[in-house]
Amino acid sequence: MRTVIISGGSSGIGAATVQRFAEQGDQVFNFDVQPPAGPAPAQAVWKKVDVADWGAVTAAVREVVDERGGLDVAIANAGISVRHGVLELTEETARRVIDVNLLGVLALWVAAAAPMTAAGHGRLLATASVNGRRGYPNYADYNATKAGIISLTQTFALELSPVVQVNCVSPGAVLTPMQLAEYTDEMLADTNARIPARRHAMPPEIAAAFHYLASEEAAFITGQDLVIDGGEVAGATTSAFGSGGRA
């Protein structure tokens, strides 16, 4: 039974990922400021952790390692977004988005890397986004954090190989509570129309990618950004509404 930490595991992609790993027999720890939105699997434990608090993340990882005797997989998934144009950006909002989306990944990965390297194995994963690969309107701070995650993935992979494999997943539009809260029906339909697959991804489809990257079948994959977007970045026209893909 592996020990797995997933941040932002109470809803959306995170909840689906908690479900996937727990169903496959792993012991999962969900780091989230909110409790799970629905019934959690028996092998999933919620810990109230704000990933923007570096010290809290470090302490929570240490608790898990002490309790379980090690750590096999850490998935930095927690993320937030606030839809606004660049002229509407405020320091308060931008700092919160960066603290959660980028520094939250860094905090979890740094804390997890130590016990993994000591044990001689481990997987560090994160939720990036197609928004980190090219510009999308109305999400400047969010986009920048996702581009940062892709860069962190490459750097951590170079430094931690061959002991720890490090990868990220870049979803396109995903039908999550965050997406539904920000988008009208018209915006959702417009997004579907510009994706070659003509639909949003469902959270379990992203969870399946994380489970694969954490498996022995993916032992030779590191430093990579796996795009799951229904063909969006292959050349579809960007909508005036911006992109989905937020976790």
TrEMBL record:
CDD domains: SDR_c. Keywords: Oxidoreductase. The keyword Oxidoreductase applies. SUPFAM superfamilies: NAD(P)-binding Rossmann-fold domains. InterPro entries: NAD(P)-bd_dom_sf (IPR036291), Sc_DH/Rdtase_CS (IPR020904), SDR_fam (IPR002347). Pfam families: adh_short_C2 (PF13561). It comes from the Bacteria. PANTHER family: 3-OXOACYL-[ACYL-CARRIER-PROTEIN] REDUCTASE, SHORT-CHAIN DEHYDROGENASES/REDUCTASES FAMILY MEMBER. Belongs to the short-chain dehydrogenases/reductases (SDR) family. This is SDR family oxidoreductase.
